Amino acid sequence: MVERDATKTPAVLPAHAIEVGTGPLDKPARNSVGGWPFLDEAQEWPLCFCGERMALFFQLDIPLDVEHFGGDHLLVFHCRTHNDASDPKTADGRLVPRFWDAPQPPYPRPFWRVLLQRHAALPAAESEPSLSGLPLTLRSFVDTPGPYGIGAQTFKVGGTPSWAQEPEHYTCACGADLVYVCQVPEGMEFDDESDGLFLGNEIYLLACPSHCDPAAVWPVNQN
Ligand SMILES: [Zn+2]
Ligand SMILES: [Zn+2]
Fold first, then answer.
1. Rounded to whole angstroms, what are the CA distances from 12 to 7, 117, 144?
2. SS3 string of 29-62?
3. Near ion ligand 2, which residues have CB within 5 Å?
4. Would you state the pLDDT for residue 4?
5. Whole-number pLDDT of residue 148
6. What spacing in Å lies between the alpha carbon of 201 and ligand 1's midpoint?
7. Which superkingdom is the protein from (predicted)?
8. How far apart are CA 88 and CA 222, in angstroms?
9. How many angstroms separate the alpha carbon of residue 111 from the centre of ligand 1?
10. Binning pLDDT at 50, 70 and 90, where does residue 63 land?
11. How far is the CA of 54 from the centre of ligand 1 (A)?
12. In angstroms, what CA-CA distances link 152 with 119, 121, 162, 178?
């Protein structure tokens, strides 16, 4: 008898395609491009090191079937002026303490902020001024990993990342291994005016399953 090696069969994880609707939004929506950010009460709208408020590119409620992060509210902010690929800083095999604030040469700090909020009940009073607000719809789909164990190359939450290069794994400063949660495909355009997020690189958001900090999310960039 030849036994099948179960470890070689990647699991099919709950996945949701993220679809961008037509706008503009005329009132707050929890799942949106632009729009009114839903932040925890103590959480300020993030500022870039340049002093400008970062733009809310998108936000969504993570579906409950997504392990570790179901029920969290994910928000992705990025400066309108500063743009580059992300550059992870590690020490002793882990991302450095407060890696979400670590320098990104030539910049003194990151030009993005990704947040997982757990008590984001109310929308901000103001909407994102630099992006046209659009609704997002999440649609469950079967993200069956392909021959190399990679998932669909699409805008999605959950499922399996479609690594453009070698898979990247990071350990949070708190000791927990970061877990993939959301993918933004290469060249995704949120409007006509910007270079997109991280110069249009594909983005794999890896987040701390221990929720040691709302900003403990690393945006892996590949192309
Ligand atoms: Zn900036
Ligand atoms: Zn952590």
1. 13, 26, 6
2. CCCEECCCCECCCCCCCCECCCCCECEEEEEEEC
3. 172, 174, 176, 208, 210, 212, 216
4. 47
5. 87
6. 18
7. Bacteria
8. 12
9. 6
10. very high
11. 7
12. 31, 32, 6, 20
Structure token digits, residue 175: 């000791």
Percent over 90 (pLDDT), the chain: 90
Alpha carbon of 46 to ligand 2 centroid (Å): 20
Say which ligand is closest to the CA of 52.
Answer: 1
Q: How far is the CA of 178 from the centre of ligand 2 (A)?
A: 7
CA 212 – ligand 2 centroid, Å? 4
Lay out the sheet containing 134-142: strands in order across: 112-117, 73-78, 55-61, 32-33, 134-142, 14-20, 156-158, 179-184, 202-207, 217-222
Nearest ligand to the C-alpha atom of residue 171: 2
For residue range 71-121, list pLDDT tens digits in order.
999 999 999 999 999 999 999 999 999 999 999 999 999 999 999 999 999
Q: Quick one: which ligand is closest to 46's CA? A: 1
Which pLDDT score, from 0 to 100, does residue 192 have?
A: 74
